[in-house]
Automatic annotation (TrEMBL):
<dbReference type="Pfam" id="PF13287">
    <property type="entry name" value="Fn3_assoc"/>
</dbReference>
<dbReference type="InterPro" id="IPR008979">
    <property type="entry name" value="Galactose-bd-like_sf"/>
</dbReference>
<dbReference type="InterPro" id="IPR057739">
    <property type="entry name" value="Glyco_hydro_29_N"/>
</dbReference>
<dbReference type="InterPro" id="IPR000933">
    <property type="entry name" value="Glyco_hydro_29"/>
</dbReference>
<protein>
    <recommendedName>
        <fullName>alpha-L-fucosidase</fullName>
        <ecNumber>3.2.1.51</ecNumber>
    </recommendedName>
</protein>
<keyword id="KW-0732">Signal</keyword>
<dbReference type="Pfam" id="PF01120">
    <property type="entry name" value="Alpha_L_fucos"/>
</dbReference>
<dbReference type="GO" id="GO:0005764">
    <property type="term" value="C:lysosome"/>
</dbReference>
<feature type="signal peptide">
    <location>
        <begin position="1"/>
        <end position="29"/>
    </location>
</feature>
<dbReference type="GO" id="GO:0016139">
    <property type="term" value="P:glycoside catabolic process"/>
</dbReference>
<keyword id="KW-0326">Glycosidase</keyword>
<comment type="similarity">
    <text>Belongs to the glycosyl hydrolase 29 family.</text>
</comment>
<dbReference type="GO" id="GO:0006004">
    <property type="term" value="P:fucose metabolic process"/>
</dbReference>
<dbReference type="InterPro" id="IPR000421">
    <property type="entry name" value="FA58C"/>
</dbReference>
<dbReference type="InterPro" id="IPR026876">
    <property type="entry name" value="Fn3_assoc_repeat"/>
</dbReference>
<dbReference type="InterPro" id="IPR017853">
    <property type="entry name" value="GH"/>
</dbReference>
<dbReference type="Pfam" id="PF00754">
    <property type="entry name" value="F5_F8_type_C"/>
</dbReference>
Length: 711
């Protein structure tokens, strides 16, 4: 048997020599693809890396995050609406497209649709003759930006929501949008589904089975027909998965592949404790379904003037960029035009500076021009698979190794010492996600020293080092792979040096502290709302801010200034006491008023099957009568989702015994985006006591309160 085989091989080589065909040409064929592969729409999506999602509608005028569906469209009148200003600001930020929220949960369509009366023609804008989706489309065309569309499946206005007829209406809406306004790069579908709403005047709760109601398989097939080049985004794909949080962060390991699981299925215990579902990391095998990280530029998705001071700064955005795009995901940044229909100046400025920072950081790949020595090159063919392809601009040209070589190494000699703090690696994903893990060494003081490790390379992996490294030689070691390596990019970059903005906090005694991670020459601050300059007071010691207010601070070092830090505080909680609670808890109720966002009053029992009665209440004695203009509730900040209140009543009292209801409502989108909620009162109230009564939580059998506050 062996002999026949040998004889056969000999014959083959004779044949090869005779035809001038080298034996190792077999090895020079490109590597076979490994595992799941991206489709055309997904490749385009990966290449984009970043886009924005734009929320504007009735919520912009009612100051809500989710409309109930009973809003009068006439309140919508963005007299200065300018799609070019909005899309242009996104472009300046380096974003490659915009997803327009054509209809949010409140049901108001911002294009003149035939599918529902509740649409833009009923607004005051342009006397009902306007079409926002069209204006966005034209702006995108002019600016070379790609367009995406989001039409919310949940519709709190539509009388038919919950019945089969609504599915027909929903599909007709998508058809209208996708056949009249395309081409689109993404078909965006959120996972918020069912609940109470206006529903044509019924004002009731409508529950649907999210796994069957929308018949996604068939809906997706229609989308493919209307928009074959659009990636479909949803909680479980089909093409792009939700990362599982609205903080803009993928897992440190984040596979492009995912074995779809409904986000609330799987490992999550029934009391809803775990927030980070598998979607954050993906799974090592499964369908090609990379993560999208959606996060708003401000705390909320819609515009709220009260959040004007909380626009994320360029360096905060850069940090999110590393945590999303740098982990193989895409960043989808929420923009919220104001009531005039424009982005505020602050938002525009932050986007522009972020775009400039990105450009500056990635302008020069320090490995360009380096000499590479690879431990292996596929078929020994430098011309076809050599490391020179690592520094060209083509994301699909690549350095490859022989089939059997899964853990090669590569030395890059830059010939002269260079300083860097960012490492970039990319695989040629047309051949799948092959690499499991890598390490990078720098040649320092005559020896190799490991400076970084990473998992899940895929379309993009950025490693931001904690300190600058100066070296002339670096070494890449692939430490694990499922198949031979097909790496398309290796880069070293230097982010511009900057001073970190100071942190501002207040303690239970009402004392404000401003601090930085590393020493600086001075921290300057204001409490009058103006931005600190080099002439503002120098921060020396903690100071009191009994009646609340806004503190702004900047660090200075030489001629460098940090970004601005801003923090708004309500009334000081000095002297506040918990008067009573209605539910048993293992944690102290005082945690709800200790000015520490990381501690919770938490009534969730350890037994996840135990039942809990609502309302659950906590009453506070502020020690003296105060003027109350609004209340704040900060849900738990520990990434867990049990016990987050979404329906509440606030009461006040002069004596701690007789209570008056002063506010009632819902906290919308609080589970996905657990930010501080502000409840303004219709008119200011004088009281010494207040009570937070929670009627309902999004998940779990108890309540968790990180902080309660009063403004
Ligand atoms: C979520 C929605 O519930 C939010 O309101 C927002 O639109 C966000 C982008 O998606 O699912």
């Amino acid at each position: 048997m062996v002999e026949t085989l040998n004889a056969g091989l000999k014959k083959l080589s004779v044949l090869c020599v005779a035809t001038g065909f080298a034996i190792n040409s077999f090895a020079q064929a490109p590597p076979k693809p490994y595992g799941a592969l991206p489709n055309k729409a997904q490749l385009n999506w990966h290449e984009m890396g970043m886009y924005c999602i734009i929320h504007f509608g009735v919520d912009t005028y009612t100051n809500k995050e989710w409309g109930y569906g009973d809003e009068d469209p006439a309140i919508v009148n963005p007299t200065k609406f300018d799609a070019m200003q909005i899309v242009g600001a996104a472009k300046a930020g380096g974003f490659k497209g915009v997803v327009i929220v054509a209809k949010h949960h409140d049901g108001l369509a911002i294009w003149p649709t035939k599918t529902t009366e509740h649409n833009i023609t009923k607004t005051s804008w342009k006397n009902g003759k306007g079409d926002m989706v069209k204006e966005y489309k034209l702006a995108c065309q002019k600016l070379g930006m790609q367009l995406g569309l989001y039409c919310s499946p949940w519709d709190r206005n539509n009388p038919y929501y919950g019945t089969p007829k609504y599915l027909e209406i929903y599909r007709a809406q998508i058809k209208e949008l996708y056949t009249n306004y395309g081409p689109i790069f993404i078909s965006w579908h959120d996972g918020a589904n069912g609940g109470d709403g206006y529903y044509g005047g019924k004002r009731e709760e409508r529950k649907i089975d999210r796994t069957t109601y929308y018949d996604w398989d068939n809906t997706w097939a229609m989308i493919r027909k209307w928009q074959p080049n659009a990636a479909i985004f949803g909680d479980i794909g089909a093409d792009v998965r939700w990362v599982g949080n609205e903080e803009g962060e993928a897992g440190k390991t984040s596979w492009a592949t995912y074995a779809p699981q409904a986000p609330d299925a799987g490992k999550k215990p029934s009391n809803g404790y775990s927030k980070y579902w598998e979607a954050t990391e993906g799974t090592r095998s499964g369908n090609w379904m990379p993560a999208e990280c959606d996060v708003p530029l401000r705390p909320g998705w819609f515009y709220h003037a009260s959040q004007n001071e909380q626009v994320k700064t360029p360096y905060q955005l850069l940090d999110l960029y590393y945590k999303s795009v740098g982990r193989g995901a895409d960043l989808d940044l929420g923009l919220s035009p104001n009531r005039d229909g424009l982005l505020d100046d602050n938002d525009v400025a932050s986007l522009k500076q972020f775009g400039a920072l990105l450009k500056q950081t990635f302008a020069v790949n320090l490995l360009k021009g380096a000499s590479f020595t690879a431990s292996n090159i596929r078929g020994n063919s430098k011309a076809k698979f050599g490391p020179a392809f690592l520094t060209d601009a083509d994301r699909y040209s690549y350095w490859a190794t022989d089939d059997a070589v899964k853990t090669p190494s590569l030395v890059a000699d830059m010939h002269t010492a260079r300083t860097f703090n960012v490492i970039r690696l990319r695989e040629n994903i047309k051949l799948g996600q092959r690499i499991n893990s890598i390490a990078v060494d720098a040649y320092l003081n005559g020896e190799w020293k490991e400076i970084a490790t990473a998992t899940s390379i895929g379309a993009n992996r950025l490693i931001r080092l904690p300190q600058n490294i100066t070296a002339s030689k670096v070494r890449l070691r692939v430490t694990g792979a499922e198949a031979c390596v097909a790496l398309s990019d290796f880069g070293l970059f230097k982010e511009p040096a900057h001073l970190t903005a100071p942190g501002i906090s207040r303690d239970k005694k009402g004392m404000v502290t401003i601090a930085t991670d590393a020493p600086v020459s001075s921290i300057r601050y204001t409490t009058d709302g103006t931005a600190p300059t080099a002439l503002s007071p120098v921060y020396q010691n903690s100071f009191a801010l009994a009646n609340g207010g806004t503190v702004k601070a900047v660090s200075f070092e030489g001629n460098k200034a940090s970004e601005l830090s801003t923090k708004a505080f309500g009334l000081s909680k000095e002297g506040w006491k918990v008067l009573a609670t209605s539910a048993q808890a293992d944690t102290k109720p005082e945690y709800a008023i200790d000015e520490d966002a990381n501690s919770n009053w938490n009534t969730l029992p350890k037994d996840s099957l135990a039942t809990a009665a609502f309302p659950q209440e906590i009453a506070i004695d502020m020690g003296a009568e105060q003027t109350i203009k609004s209340f704040t509730y900060l849900p738990r900040q520990d990434k867990k989702t049990g016990g987050i209140a979404d329906r509440y009543i606030f009461y006040t009292s002069a004596d701690g015994q007789t209570w008056q209801q002063v506010a009632v409502g819902e906290f919308s989108n609080i589970q996905a985006n657990p930010i501080e909620q502000t409840v303004p009162l219709a008119k200011a109230v004088q009281a010494r006591y207040f009570k937070f009564s929670v009627l309902h939580v999004t998940k779990g059998n108890g309540l968790a309160v990180a902080e309660l506050g009063v403004n």
